[in-house]
Amino acid sequence: MFLSIFDIFKIGVGPSSSHTVGPMLAAARFLDDLRAGRGVIPGAGKLASLGCSLHGSLAFTGKGHATDRAVTLGFAGMDPASFDVEKATKAEALIDKTGTVAPNGLGTLKYRQSENLVFDYKHALPAHANGMIISAYDEAGNLHTQETYYSTGGGFVMTAREMAGETMQAEQPSAPYPFKSADEMLTMCKQSGKTIAQIKRENETHHMTAKQLSDGLAKVWSVMNACINRGLSTGGILDGGLFVRRRAKNIHKALLAERGLNLTAPHTINDWISVYAIAVNEENAAGGQVVTAPTNGAAGVLPATLRYYLDHVPGATKDKIEDFLLTAAAIGGLIKVNASISGAEVGCQGEVGSAAAMAAAGLCAVLGGTPEQIENAAEIALEHHLGMTCDPVKGLVQAPCIERNGLGAIKAVSAASLALRGDGAHLVSLDACVETMRQTGRDMDSKYKETSLGGLAVNVPTC
């Protein structure tokens, strides 16, 4: 299965790619089906109203992850990639006042979030932990159209039929280097004499021009870097009731003040790496614009690692940003296809663990690593996140998520450095590590998979 780099890196809105971005996109897909007249139940009358039920993890942590708001804004025609906070606030107020939404081409439809969006805590849906059912009704209150969607992590959305393999959104695109495993990827690199970034680039430019690819990557890094900078300059308390103080601004200010004083220990570089990641995830928690990398909950790891390279590594050059992102996306695609990047499916090993593997691979690549060393770097980073649970306190993407990104970035840098000290030969392959993560996630108790029913979520007082 070919996944484009722009499937892995999506520009969206916080706090969660699976609980915010995915449901908003699902609502948009449903509206598109209504406009096209797809799925209308025979005998149904004129379209009059909308409704939605959230299941599994979307129900348990949906309030903290703003899933209800995401669905509502999706019904109002909002899109994650072009999300505007001011417009969204005005749209919410109007919907709350009128009890209606007016998506383009569908007229005015009855919908009130407090009445027509249900958190169903009792009935999980079978194909994935992040399930939702969107319904439309006619003027008599009879079902007009209904579709089941699954938000599978990183902003990916599939219908129940797609999950079952009954339908596909489109024929799978071809690629010059169609690797489905890390072992195949390394073999193709060896046979072609190309780097991981080069074969990934050729796969991408098989479907778009080189300029489209470069422009897209420049946009991705611009949004990532802007997110870091906003986080480094914004203080205050995060909404949600935990009263978590934004720390990136003050940490950054202190680090800047210490520069040139020759008083700091070498390990202070870890604080620089962490503060970049914390800045991103504080922005994510506040509902700001972020890039899935590969998810929103893990959005800080990769930008922090790349910013560390650009600002702190001697000889670093912006010319290598594309190679960093292409290499990281190759690794992220392998994990997505062969295991999962969804915290609701496999725990945080699938989010921060995957992000650390991607970032380690990208850093190793721009530091001159061979394909074998890059694969080793990704494996080291992922291996040492195996078993990590997803247990957000009060269902918010704040604790432990924000700090966890900082430590994930530190692990990514360490993994790349260790891999570069070797020749690429190592005992545990990335493929074996990815399969282990899949199995571990399958066996993990659901209370540790983004339901806030276990772990820190039940041992940290929230009142």
Entry keywords:
single chain, 5-stranded mixed sheet, alpha+beta, 463 residues, 2-methylcitrate dehydratase PrpD, 60s Ribosomal Protein L30, Chain: A, two-stranded antiparallel sheet, 2 domains
Provide an overview of this structure.
The protein is α+β, with helices and mostly antiparallel strands and 463 residues long. It folds into 2 domains: 17-163, 60s Ribosomal Protein L30, Chain: A, CATH 3.30.1330; 182-459, 2-methylcitrate dehydratase PrpD, CATH 1.10.4100. 50% of the residues lie in helices and 10% in strands. It has a 5-stranded mixed β-sheet. The chain has a two-stranded antiparallel ribbon with strand order 1-9. A two-stranded antiparallel ribbon has the order 3-4.
Largest sheet: 5 strands, mixed
Task: For the largest sheet, list the strands in their spatial order.
Answer: 5-2-6-7-8
Beta-strand percentage range = 5-15%
Work out the number of β strands: 9
Order of helices and strands: HEHEHHHEEHEEEEHHHHHHEHHHHHHHH
Oligomer: single chain
Helix content: 40-55%
CATH architecture of the largest domain: Orthogonal Bundle
Structural class of the helices, strands and pairings?
alpha+beta
Distance between the termini: 46 Å
Question: Which CATH C-level class of the largest domain is it?
Answer: Mainly Alpha
Number of helices: 20
Which runs of at least 5 residues are low in confidence (pLDDT < 50)?
Answer: none
Shape: globular
Radius of gyration over C-alpha positions, nearest whole angstrom: 22 Å
How many domains make up the coordinates?
2
In CATH, the topology of the largest domain is named 2-methylcitrate dehydratase PrpD
What is the typical, i.e. mean, pLDDT? 96
